[in-house]
Design brief:
GO terms for molecular function: iron-sulfur cluster binding; metal ion binding. This is Aconitase/3-isopropylmalate dehydratase large subunit alpha/beta/alpha domain-containing protein. The protein is α/β, with parallel strands linked by helices and 85 residues long. The chain has one domain. 33% of the residues lie in helices and 20% in strands.
Length: 85
């Protein structure tokens, strides 16, 4: 049996480890146009704009995918702004 995924969905929880592993091996993301990243698990559910994330580690986790996805050419869907309080 051959299994092929034509679209890969990643999130802010597990993608940092994947990017670190690729960097350690000197490899690039294969087929970045077939990757889609979302910041979804860490987003506050209140209606305040911009989204306020009070915990510094959580803020970093929410902002980290933007850097990784930009340098890899991956589409990222995330809230427009995160602010620490």
């Amino acid at each position: 049996m051959l299994l092929y995924a034509d679209l890969h969905l990643m999130n802010e929880y597990t993608s940092p480890q994947a990017f670190s592993a690729l960097d350690a091996r000197g490899r690039a993301v294969r087929r970045p146009r077939q990757q889609l990243a979302v910041v979804s698990h860490i987003i506050p559910t209140h209606a305040q704009t911009p989204r306020v994330i009070r915990d510094a580690a959580s803020l970093l986790q929410a902002q980290n995918p933007a850097h990784n996805c930009e340098r890899a050419g991956i589409r990222l869907f995330a809230a427009r702004a995160f602010v620490a309080v």
